[in-house]
Design brief:
With about 375 residues, this protein is mainly beta. About 10% of the residues lie in helices and about 30% in strands. It has a 5-stranded mixed sheet with strand order 5-11-10-7-8, with no helix packed on it. A 4-stranded antiparallel sheet has the order 15-14-17-18, with no helix packed on it. Strands 1-3-2 form a 3-stranded mixed sheet, with helices on one face. The chain binds zinc ion.
């Protein structure tokens, strides 16, 4: 699914660009990020990033990381740009008038109707006419297109894509690798998110076991479509940092280290319109040393949701099973007395959910067992 994030900051994971990043896109992960202060009538950042997303390079391709500068590059530039791309020329078969020139032999952005630009916008005063004399390798003076969407001139009253740039974007959209964009149809969830998630488990330096099968849980946030879950082993959230996304108000982790006192986590809800608005406080927990071993091989996942369960509500067992099977469910109280039993329960392949009424039980700690001829699986259950 293609996603566009609008957030307070937009710092890419590896800072590989000059200046302050206003937005960036990831062709690999299929998303783009734009700073919220860039979404206004003076900024072309979002359209610029969408241009990249739909295959367009900068008009100054080859000068992306080293803008032209008189002292370094001279008034008349050499054949190659600092990035090793042939410099686009005003005439002579490359660049602006590249009729008849094969694409591989074109310089710069390889787009014929964008004039050469050696990243003149970077450091120039706004969108005013670029008046410095700079010549292409043939000695012809360059007149860049200041208001091109794929350049770096800032503050233009309006920006344009040229006809060739627009045609390339349309071709990219219509290409087979964009099938998913043309077929994906749903109404975005744009409802306001204003509540920080309430983390439920584990919190307050709680000890969790088994350490290698933990399900983090939080209360669902109104209007959240998804959650970002951040995990780390330091209060500044930078040691052993991991990020997950999920649609559910829980996240199962099977990759934590044993016997660590310093795990932290927090949750940030988002949807198509709200991102990075509210986060939960950071909660801390420790991991124990008990290893989880599922002794019924048909069960790939099993959890009780929510846990604790409120007395009177159904106890819900959420499962994912590799095959259909039959088994017995029993619930024992802390003294080992059986308070519930269901024999020959059918469990279904794939996602399965089983509800057990709790209204005949009392508040307290229980153990819920599923057993088959193969073995037994036990989960702690709290009724409150
Ligand atoms: Zn760019």
């Amino acid at each position: 699914m293609y996603q566009c994030f609008v957030s307070k900051t937009a710092t890419p994971p590896s800072a590989s660009s000059i200046g302050t990043t206003l937005g960036y896109y990831s062709p690999t992960y299929d998303y783009l990020v734009v700073r919220i202060d860039q979404i206004n009538k003076y900024s072309g950042t979002l359209s610029h990033e969408l241009g990249h997303f739909f295959s367009l390079p900068h008009t100054f391709r080859g000068w992306d990381f080293e803008p032209w500068d008189q002292a370094t590059h001279g008034t008349t530039v050499t054949a190659l740009s600092p990035g090793g791309v042939p410099n686009e020329r005003v005439n002579g078969g490359m660049g602006f008038n590249c009729t008849g020139t094969s694409e591989a032999n074109r310089g710069g952005d390889r787009i014929c109707d964008t004039p050469p630009d050696y990243n003149f916008g970077f450091g120039w005063t706004g969108c005013s006419e670029f008046t410095t004399v700079v010549n292409d390798p043939a000695g012809v003076r360059i007149d860049p297109q200041e208001n091109n969407m794929m350049g770096y001139f800032i503050g233009c009253a309006s920006y344009i894509f040229t006809d060739d740039q627009s045609a390339l974007k349309v071709a990219d959209y219509n290409s087979s690798r964009r099938n998913y964009l043309r077929t994906y149809r749903r109404t975005p969830n744009t409802n306001t998110i204003s509540t920080a998630p309430n983390l439920v488990f584990p919190i307050n330096q709680e000890l969790v076991d088994p350490y290698n099968d933990i399900t983090l849980r939080w209360d669902p946030v109104p209007n959240a479509g998804f959650y970002v879950v951040e995990l780390s082993r330091s209060s500044s959230m930078d040691v052993d940092y991991k990020v997950y996304t999920t649609k559910n108000p829980f996240l199962r982790l099977t990759n934590l280290l044993s016997n660590r006192p310093d795990y932290r986590w927090r949750v940030t809800p988002y949807n198509e319109a709200y991102f990075d608005v509210v986060s939960s406080p950071i909660q801390r927990f420790k991991t124990g040393i008990v290893n989880s071993v599922s002794q019924i091989e048909e069960i790939s996942y099993m959890d009780i949701v929510p846990n604790p369960t409120s007395l009177g509500d159904n106890i819900e067992i959420w499962m994912n099973n590799l095959a259909n099977f039959q088994g017995n469910i029993s619930i024992l109280n802390a003294a080992g007395v059986k308070v519930f039993e269901k024999a020959n329960q059918s469990f279904n392949k794939g996602d399965d959910k089983i509800s057990i009424p709790s209204d005949k039980m009392a508040k307290g700690l229980y153990f819920l067992n599923i057993n088959t001829t193969e073995g037994i699986i036990t989960k702690k259950l709290i009724l409150q």
